[in-house]
From TrEMBL:
<feature type="signal peptide">
    <location>
        <begin position="1"/>
        <end position="18"/>
    </location>
</feature>
<feature type="region of interest" description="Disordered">
    <location>
        <begin position="300"/>
        <end position="328"/>
    </location>
</feature>
<feature type="region of interest" description="Disordered">
    <location>
        <begin position="53"/>
        <end position="80"/>
    </location>
</feature>
<keyword id="KW-0732">Signal</keyword>
<protein>
    <recommendedName>
        <fullName>Lipoprotein</fullName>
    </recommendedName>
</protein>
<dbReference type="Pfam" id="PF03640">
    <property type="entry name" value="Lipoprotein_15"/>
</dbReference>
<dbReference type="InterPro" id="IPR047910">
    <property type="entry name" value="SCO0930-like"/>
</dbReference>
<feature type="compositionally biased region" description="Polar residues">
    <location>
        <begin position="68"/>
        <end position="80"/>
    </location>
</feature>
<dbReference type="InterPro" id="IPR005297">
    <property type="entry name" value="Lipoprotein_repeat"/>
</dbReference>
<dbReference type="GO" id="GO:0043448">
    <property type="term" value="P:alkane catabolic process"/>
</dbReference>
Amino acid sequence: MKTSWRSASLVVSAVAVAALTTACGSETAPPASSQNVGATAAAGDYGSAGTGLGNGSGYDPGAAGQESAETQAASAGELSVSTNQELGELLTDSAGLTLYRFDKDTADPAKSNCDGDCAKKWPPVPADDATAGTGIDKALLGSVTRSDGTKQLTVDGWPAYRFAKDVNAGDVNGQGVGGTWYALAPDGKKAQGGAGAEAADLPGLSTRKDPKLGEIVIDKNGHTVYRFMKDTQWPMSTKCTGECLEKWPVVAPVDAEDTEGIDLQGSTPNRGYVVFDRPDGIKQQSIDCVPIYTFAGDKKPGDTNGQGVGGTWFAVRPDGKPVGASEK
């Protein structure tokens, strides 16, 4: 980590609550439960994705009835390599539908963490008859046994899925959804073009120089990090709940040692770099005591489609301040 506060990394735990609350804007430490107060107002004006390769807003529950059993259980057949203008090479099934991977799964050992309603939105690809077409290393193809006993195709250990809202061959509407779903490249990695390859070894949080916005914070996938101007520093609270989180996924906790360039100059060590325990049970990273997010409408590293959305969402500078907006 290349920050002025590396030597005092903050670990948020029960024994550190007093330090955490004091760091986030109060001279006198408030009650230990204060990190969860004032945080549950739903946001009706959190903005719309409206940009990128797909709709970026996640799955529409109203469309569930349109999914056919045949589509969900369709065999993969011979896999192919398709080229997308922005994502580069990606895997498709015999019908030309894009295959995806889920960040919450694991590849070693292979394990799927998408069941129930998730599996309706993201149908697992059966492993039974999947074969490697031209440009695909058959040694990378395997299978994992799901919780229901069925066999799911894996690519270099990563369970493979389709997206229920991809209708036509070549559709990539699932790319970047929720900040956790990505098209599969032929080698099992995320298909994000050249920029995706550059982002492969990034720290949990770091910075990059954007030609229009200047120095901004990015996550481990190279995606721009944002803050919501209706959130508050103290008491730390969020107005982005429910459906808002489909468009603005939270940034999960990142260890202070897994950052580079985060610069809270003028603050005490680690002041404001704490984990926010949201009222919905999700743990969210903050910078300068403000919760941070990514945008589902950013489909690849370098995108800044969330900048200025709704007049309330702005990219984050290394010191946690919003780019192009004044704090009240």
